[in-house]
Amino acid sequence: MLSPKTWPFELSLLPQSAYLVGGSVRDALLGRRAEYLDLDFVLPENVIETARAIASHHQAGFVVLDAKHKIARVVFDQATVDFAQQAGLSLDTDLRRRDFTVNAIAYHPHTECLLDPLQGGEDLQRKQLRMISIKNLREDPLRLLRAYRQAAQLGFTLETNTQAAIRKLAPLLVQVAAERVRGELDSLLSQAQGTPFLNLAWQDGVLKDWLPHITDDRLSSIAEIDQMTSNLEKTWPTYATVLKGWLRDQAFPGFHRSWLKAAKLCCLLSPDLEKAEAELERLKYSRAEQQAVITILRGLPQLSSIQERALPLRQQYFLFRDIGSSFLGLSILVLALGAPIGEIAPLIHRFLNPEDPVAHPTPLVTGRDLMRSLGIRPGPQVGQLLASIQLAQAEGKVSTATEALQWAAIELKALPHSGKARGEQS
Question: Collapsing DSSP states into helix, strand and coil, what is residue 114?
Answer without folding.
Answer: strand
